[in-house]
Amino acid sequence: MKSFDGHNDLLARLWLSEHPDPVGMFLKGQLPGHLDFARCQQAQFAGGLFAIFVPPFDYVKNNHPYKLRKSAQAGFDTQDIHHIVFTQLDYIKQIASRSDRRIQICLSVEDIQFCLQQDIMAVVIHLEGAEVLDSEFGVLEQLHARGLRSIGPLWNLPNQFGHGLQASFPHSPDTGLGLTDQGKALIQLCSEKRIMIDVSHMNEKAFWDTAKISELPLIATHSNVHQLCPQPRNLTDAQLEAIQASQGCVGVNFDTAFLRPDGQRNAATSLDLILEHIEYLMHKLGEDQVAFGSDFDGGFISDHLKDVTGLIHLQQAFERRGYSQALQEKLCHQNWLSALQRVWHPAC
Ligand SMILES: [Zn+2]
């Protein structure tokens, strides 16, 4: 069955690659990691939200120092951030343009539906962490004009839009102050332009600030249930109720640290834990507002799933648990299409 997914970090992985042509490696099916085109096709991975992400400076410095300018010591400056974001945007454009029409950037649910029917991989461009945006939002206009349709204003570190989410397991999502005035202005603008707002990395105050300002459904592209795994990034019952009431959606994260009650990265983690989070979410949200948010190429994935090809094992687990075909279709792709429809094209 075809799967449409709420979150992957392929583009950051391509940017971190030392290979001179990482896009070619992806298209030829030779890329290490959780995703390449050959494995996506094998797994009926029909597409999803592809995140543009500026990795933390210290992570790059310690693990991929060849990506830094010689003069860069303490952090990325505005020019660096701009360069990283637009390089990743260029990668996704190249992936589509060099794919022989087998991969397409989608701007509407109609586009995604067309891709699903034609066996074309559907790409929605997402920005995870919005520090590239200027206070006048000119860069947002540029990115939107080039296909951006979804933004998570914050990743875990503080930026001009909010105070981030820095707390170690176990912890409630209440980790400090919420959105800044600029953050509130960004939410207002995205709500007006109907650019999807991702609450996945928001702390609790930023989540409630967003809920108050935005008229769009609340979407968590890759987060799980706090009651089952008390990561600060997982969602409390009160947050799930707000998401339910807003007609939003939660994409279940496959990273074992967001699934397990002990918050560990553990390769032996059973796939049944993913089903436990799905079932809890369906209990709170109903079966129309739960979907996938794999975190492929960004998260720590169990050996039982391994990579994108493991989606077939997840579907086998659905079968064993007796999920109907109709329910599997909703979880695997239909719920994302309906959620994006409600965000981007509300009924007049
Ligand atoms: Zn993330």
Provide an overview of this structure.
This is Zn-dependent dipeptidase. InterPro entries: Metal_Hydrolase, Pept_M19. GO terms for molecular function: metallodipeptidase activity. One of its GO terms (biological process) is proteolysis. The protein has 348 residues and is of the alpha/beta class. It has one domain (3-343): Metal-dependent hydrolases (TIM Barrel, Alpha-Beta Barrel), CATH 3.20.20. It is 41% helix and 12% strand. The protein has 13 helices and 9 strands. Strands 1, 2, 3, 4, 5 and 6 form a 6-stranded parallel β-sheet that branches. Helix 1 packs across helix 5 and helix 2 (22-28) runs parallel beside helix 5. The two termini are 32 Å apart. Residues 128, 200-201, 222, 298 line the site of zinc ion. Zinc ion binds at residues 128, 200-201, 222, 298.
Annotation keywords:
alpha/beta; 12% strand; three-stranded parallel beta sheet; binds zinc ion; 348 residues; 13 helices; TIM Barrel
Tell me the layout of helices and strands:
Blueprint: E1 3-8, H1 10-16, H2 22-28, H3 37-42, E2 45-53, H4 57-63, H5 78-97, E3 103-105, H6 109-118, E4 121-128, H7 138-145, E5 148-152, H8 181-193, E6 196-197, H9 204-213, E7 219-220, H10 237-245, E8 249-252, H11 272-285, E9 290-292, H12 311-320, H13 325-344
Parallel strand pairs: 1-2, 2-4, 3-4, 4-5, 5-6, 7-8, 8-9
Helix pairs in contact: 1-5, 2-5
The site of zinc ion has 5 residues, from loops.
Report how far apart the termini are: 32 Å
Q: Sum up the overall morphology in one term.
A: globular
Would you tell me the structural class of the helices and strands? alpha/beta
DSSP strand count: 9
Instruction: Average the pLDDT over all residues and give the rounded result.
Output: 96
Helix content: 40-55%
In terms of DSSP E residues, the strand content is: 5-15%
| The top level CATH class name | Alpha Beta
Largest sheet: 6 strands, parallel
